[in-house]
Amino acid sequence: MHRVLIVGAGATGSSAALRLRQLGVEAKLEVWEKARGPGGRMSTNRQDIDGSTVRADMGAQYLSLDPADAASTQVSELLLAKGICAKVSPAQLSATPERQRDWEHLAGTAGGVNDALKALIEE
Prior knowledge:
Layout: E1 2-7, H1 11-22, E2 27-32, E3 44-49, E4 52-57, E5 63-65, H2 70-81, E6 85-87, E7 104-108, H3 114-122
Parallel strand pairs: 1-2
Antiparallel strand pairs: 3-4, 5-7, 6-7
Helix pairs in contact: 1-3
């Protein structure tokens, strides 16, 4: 059996792991990440304050996916079906001129947006 090393568990590395599995590549996938877990720039900080866990997405606060792209649609459907992410209305986002108006935006539900990347690696 072949072995595949994916360096980095950010958006690209996590997506590569998912795509290789979807394609049925018969290989042992190994993902190396510098940080303590998947996420890359989508890290989530968790703090215990007075017995409650407070979380803050320190990097990207949401994912932007192109609905015209089949792979993006598959990722969106997976994350929504698992309840890891929820859709964010474009009205809730800043009016950045570069933002694609027809794209879909997803935010993490309970654990932070980096849970989406963990799910892609584990899928």
